């Protein structure tokens, strides 16, 4: 039974996190560094795990992203756009814990071979679902609260890297998921020009990407230098039996003309995850775009299906951050520039 002090602490955390979520997801303006946010989020998760009676249905731990803005048409996702669990331990142990959990959930023991994973970068932008019908882009939607996003098709059409029609054979209905982002050099050039013109600058590349996609004038969006990485599928693609591994999905996305980041690697077992994490951490500052960690996914689609989901997260994927992210800066008390 939770003491009144613990109950009060959980209530305070819920309110505080909900407020940070609003500023981050709705306004695209973080009030605190991610590391600080993650610490509070994990504290609330731990309290709820220890005292299940404290878990309320409106707890931020049970939600994905933020409320869609009213100014856009709502889009109900055919398949929810979920969150990814963040591994609490940012050291190598985070990868080892994830692998151990997956093996346990699949009932494997030490004599079974290592699990094959695909490791990707966790791009720090805005998640988008692109819907193609008969090979043509018909709709682009934000993640929103996971169930319902915002129709941002007009703005997304201005991103040159997103194909408006697909090359080669493709299913009648195809949903592609990925991240819209602003590359660092583009962000700096854009701000430099804005300063020269005496116009407002963007706060950071993530704010630049999210703010550009979620604003009403497509002409303004077209002036912002946005890019895209595809990393998965939305609505199930019927009759396409190439979909045995996530790696094959990425290859097919590449063949259709979507940008797929080439740092992704297929690795074996926990050791492979650890090596990927270390390699990306060492090169992270040299990447031309921001990442907020790496993502590990079980490569086999059949195993992904066996593992399934728990509340708002798949059991077959995890985000693993880097210690240096504690240093991230955050701008407080600024105007919203959209
Ligand atoms: P998430 O942790 O729920 O992860 C899912 C998201 O990851 C997807 O929607 C997608 O946008 C993104 N992603 C990037 N690369 C991907 C890849 N290769 N494969 C799959 N997905 C990929 O995502 P979130 O809600 O964007 O972020 C949660 C994090 O945001 C928190 O851990 C926290 O650090 C940060 N946050 C910060 C504040 C703040 O105030 N600073 C507030 C809210 C959230």
Automatic annotation (TrEMBL):
Positions bound to NAD(+): 34-38, 83-84, 120, 143, 179, 297, 321
Domain of life: Bacteria
Transmembrane domains' residue ranges: none
Active site as annotated: 122 (n6-amp-lysine intermediate)
Role this protein plays: DNA ligase that catalyzes the formation of phosphodiester linkages between 5'-phosphoryl and 3'-hydroxyl groups in double-stranded DNA using NAD as a coenzyme and as the energy source for the reaction. It is essential for DNA replication and repair of damaged DNA.
Family label: Belongs to the NAD-dependent DNA ligase family. LigA subfamily.
Name this polypeptide is given: DNA ligase
Gene source species: Sideroxyarcus emersonii
Gene behind this protein: ligA
Section of the entire sequence shown: 1 to 338 of 680
């Amino acid at each position: 039974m939770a003491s009144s002090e613990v109950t009060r602490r959980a209530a305070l955390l819920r309110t505080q996190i909900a407020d940070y979520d609003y500023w981050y997801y709705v306004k695209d303006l973080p009030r605190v560094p991610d590391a600080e946010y993650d610490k509070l989020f994990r504290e609330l998760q731990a309290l709820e795990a220890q005292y299940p009676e404290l878990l309320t249905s409106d707890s931020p731990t049970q939600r994905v992203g933020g409320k869609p803005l009213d100014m856009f048409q709502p889009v109900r996702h055919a398949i929810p756009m979920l969150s990814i669990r963040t591994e609490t331990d940012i050291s190598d142990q985070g990868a080892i814990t994830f692998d151990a959990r997956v093996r346990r959930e699949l009932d494997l023991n030490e004599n079974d071979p290592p699990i094959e994973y695909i490791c990707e970068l966790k791009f720090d932008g805005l998640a988008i679902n692109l819907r193609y019908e008969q090979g043509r882009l018909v709709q682009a939607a934000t993640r929103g609260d996971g169930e319902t996003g915002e129709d941002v098709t007009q703005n997304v059409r201005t991103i040159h890297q997103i194909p408006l029609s697909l090359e080669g054979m493709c299913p009648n209905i195809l949903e592609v998921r990925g991240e819209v982002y602003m590359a660092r050099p583009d962000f700096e050039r854009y701000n430099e020009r804005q300063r020269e013109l005496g116009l407002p600058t963007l706060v950071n590349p993530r704010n630049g990407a999210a703010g550009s996609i979620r604003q009403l004038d497509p002409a303004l969006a077209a002036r912002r230098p946005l890019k895209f990485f595809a990393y998965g599928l939305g609505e199930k693609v019927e009759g396409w039996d190439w979909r045995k591994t996530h790696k094959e999905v990425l290859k097919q996305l590449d063949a259709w003309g979507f940008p797929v980041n080439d740092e992704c690697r297929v690795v074996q077992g926990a050791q492979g995850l650890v090596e990927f994490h270390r390699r990306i951490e060492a090169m992270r500052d040299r990447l031309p775009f921001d990442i907020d960690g790496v993502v590990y996914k079980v490569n086999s689609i059949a195993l992904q299906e066996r593992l399934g989901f728990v509340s708002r997260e798949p059991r077959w994927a995890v985000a693993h951050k880097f210690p240096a992210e504690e240093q991230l800066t955050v701008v407080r008390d600024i105007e919203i520039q959209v």
